[in-house]
From TrEMBL, chain A:
Membrane protein topology class: Multi-pass membrane protein
Organism: Marinobacter xiaoshiensis
One Pfam family per UniProt: MlaE
Main function: Part of the ABC transporter complex MlaFEDB, which is involved in a phospholipid transport pathway that maintains lipid asymmetry in the outer membrane by retrograde trafficking of phospholipids from the outer membrane to the inner membrane. Probably responsible for the translocation of the substrate across the membrane.
Protein name: Intermembrane phospholipid transport system permease protein MlaE
Major place of residence: membrane
Automatic annotation (TrEMBL), chain B:
Transport as UniProt keyword: yes
Protein name as annotated: ATP-binding cassette domain-containing protein
InterPro entries in UniProt: AAA+_ATPase (IPR003593), ABC_transporter-like_ATP-bd (IPR003439), P-loop_NTPase (IPR027417)
Region of interest (Disordered), residue spans: 227-246
Annotated keywords: ATP-binding, Nucleotide-binding, Transport
Keyword Transport: yes
Pfam family, one: ABC_tran
């Protein structure tokens, strides 16, 4: 019994220590004055790596999720003779929830895991140490551009995801199942509010982008520099990011749309 | 030692987790000379380099590098100070996304505002010094282990440092590669007047090029002096290490219970 309590206590202190280390790490990355001349090319390179190269999976997933929403929405709404509201349903679902959340989950799986593995491998092959010994701070040179790239790329990817999803929903609802096109777009335009829905969705994706990128770079930087350590860190990135996104989504939704 | 010291470690104590790595280590490394730090695997040789480079901080004791207490420098001051240090890592630690040329140019691009044509000339000179000018367009994945280390050496001298630290430069090298590195370390020291610290457990190669050497074991310095002084050192542990005797003060057998117990012969042979 005493051992169990001690073990529980140890887990708690380990968690607090880990959060503290991640916080100090973040402060180290974000501190200091940015240097646009050297920093901008590094940021662009990472934006390409985590943003542009994630486009394929985002577009394909957005298209299919939009199409599924169109199909399910039509089946449910036609029972009540309200299939004309399908555009409104798809847009609100995507812009408020599925766009930011699914993009973040896909981002964690594709770009987050790649970031962790890359940084972990740089640590294992002493590239980060050699940078330090050359008088170059790896937090500024390696970590910061990757963190900012995730932060910037996520909202853009979420917007693209929602746009493609709405188009996919139209393909099924309008082109295939015969919902009137004017109703599809008109109802959507009438019911989706720019500030309440679109901006809140973007705020969610900004938060998710920050959290996912932070978890990914921290796990890579803090990993045990062995193949098993990198593998474990990559897994942790995907698991922790997914849990953080789902948990934060509930909190943000409660704050944004709760109206208690 | 009676010479101008570039690095002075005094009563350095350092632990990692629960393990005491150094228990009051004091070493003086003279300016402009090659000093070899030797010792068995796991004795903390690489840790010593990391302490000198400020990547680790001692629990107690002082580390003075060129008159600066390295453990007391602030982060920014430390990074600035490291511009006059070069380090050759055991793995080479080349940046895998950059070509050989860009790897050598990297420190200059970050720390200087030299024009591109001057960077080009310096990179080619450094690569020429290590015999790899012709390999400048290759990527690190296309290099052999020895070439990788030579490129890393060219990169570590790109900014003409005052101090260069070699972490196990001979490990895993074939005889030709080892000969090349021995020549390069000796030539760089004499031509550039570098203070060189060579961490290795390759006794013959290290003693053939160093001016001074010290041997670390069990968390302390067990022997120090010129190569000839070490060869005549009275310590049995030093002699065991230098001559590679399998048994001695460092026992062949890992500590264990009595063999009679393990073989079930505690009651005697029946």
């Amino acid at each position: 019994m005493i051992d169990r309590i001690a073990s529980f206590g140890r887990s708690g202190t380990d968690l607090v220590v880990s959060i503290g280390r991640a916080g100090r790490f973040l402060a180290g990355v974000l501190s200091g004055v940015p240097r646009p001349i050297t920093g901008f090319p590094l940021l662009m390179k990472q934006l390409y790596s985590v943003g542009v190269l994630s486009l394929a999976i985002i577009v394909v997933s957005g298209l299919f999720i939009g199409m599924v929403l169109g199909l399910q929405g039509y089946t449910i709404l036609s029972d009540f003779g309200s299939e004309a509201a399908i555009g409104q349903m798809i847009a609100l679902t995507l812009v408020r929830e599925l766009g930011p959340v699914v993009t973040a989950l896909l981002f964690a799986g594709r770009a987050g895991s790649a970031l962790t593995a890359e940084i972990g491998l740089m640590k294992a092959t002493e590239q980060l140490s050699s940078m330090e010994m050359m008088g170059v701070d790896p937090l500024r040179r390696v970590i910061a551009p990757r963190l900012w790239a995730g932060f910037i790329a996520m909202p853009v990817l979420a917007i693209i995801f929602s746009m493609v999803g709405i188009w996919g929903g139209m393909l099924v609802g309008v082109e295939w199942l015969g919902v009137f096109e004017g109703s599809y777009w008109g109802n959507m335009q009438a019911s989706v509010d720019f500030w309440d829905d679109v901006v809140n969705g973007i705020i969610k994706s900004v938060v998710f982008g920050f959290v996912c990128a932070w978890i990914a770079v921290y796990q890579g930087y803090d990993c045990v520099p062995t193949s098993a350590g990198i593998s474990s860190a990559t897994t942790k990135t995907v698991v922790y990011s997914s849990l953080a996104v789902l948990g934060l989504d509930f909190v943000l939704t409660a704050v944004m749309f709760g109206n208690f | 030692m009676g010479l101008d010291s570039y690095i002075t470690l005094k009563d350095v104590v350092f632990s990692r987790s629960d393990r005491r790595i150094f228990n009051g280590v004091s070493v003086e490394i003279p300016r402009g000379k090659i000093t070899a730090v030797m010792g068995p695997s796991g004795s903390g040789k690489t840790t010593l380099l990391r302490l000198v480079g400020g990547q680790l901080r001692p629990d107690s004791g002082s580390i003075i590098v060129d008159g600066q207490p390295i453990g007391e420098l602030r982060r920014k001051e430390l990074y600035k100070f490291r511009e006059k240090m070069g380090m050759l890592f055991q793995s080479g630690a080349l940046f895998t996304d950059l070509s050989v040329y860009e790897n050598v140019a990297f420190p200059m691009r970050v720390h200087t505002k030299l024009p591109e044509d001057m960077i080009n000339d310096i990179v080619l000179m450094k690569l020429e010094a290590v015999g790899l000018r012709g390999a400048r367009k290759l990527m690190p994945s296309e290099l052999s282990g020895g070439m990788n280390r030579r490129v890393a050496l060219a990169r570590s001298i790109a900014l003409d440092p005052e101090l260069i630290m070699y972490d196990e430069p001979f490990a895993g090298q074939d005889p030709i590669g080892m000969g090349v590195l021995v020549k390069l370390i000796r030539d760089l020291n004499s031509s550039m007047g570098l203070t060189s610290v060579l961490v290795s457990h390759d006794v013959q190669e290290s003693l053939s090029i160093c001016h001074y050497a010290c041997i670390i074991a069990d968390g302390k310095v067990i022997g120090a002096g010129t190569p000839s002084e070490l060869q005549d050192h009275p310590s049995e542990q030093v002699q065991q290490f230098l001559n590679g005797h399998p048994d001695g003060p460092v026992p062949f057998h890992y500590p264990s219970s009595a063999a009679t117990e393990d073989f079930g012969l505690a009651g005697g042979v029946s």
